[in-house]
Amino acid sequence: MKQSLLCLWLVLFMTGTLWAQPLKSQFRNVSANEAFQALQQNEKDQPLEILDFRTPAEFSRGHLAEAKLINYFSTDFMKNIQELDRSKAYLVYCQVGGRSSQALNKMKQLGFQHVLHMNHGFAEWQSQGLPVSR
Fold this sequence. Notes:
Blueprint: H1 2-16, E1 26-30, H2 32-42, E2 48-52, H3 56-60, E3 68-69, H4 77-82, E4 89-93, H5 98-109, E5 114-118, H6 121-127
Parallel strand pairs: 1-5, 2-3, 2-4, 4-5
């Protein structure tokens, strides 16, 4: 019985409190399903802005709802990142995780505090059948 309650508590804690921890610097790799849950929780808790680091062509084929496109290969990529509010919470992704990993490192260096990184990218999001905007 104690083990069952402990397991239930852990599941509830892990699925419902991605941002409910004390506000301190947080950088987390998350799966597509965890990102989806964070976005569902987003409506009730700390606002979460979505950044898509793919190309405009990739973005036009589908993206997360309300995602802001910041092309990683653009000459003004760093300028676009530097203009973001460092105190806000972000969900970041690219196609499979490479560009967003690089961007996450840059965001850490620039002093961003709260970033969820969908480390298997939009490819995993699609493979899970999660909602896509066009």
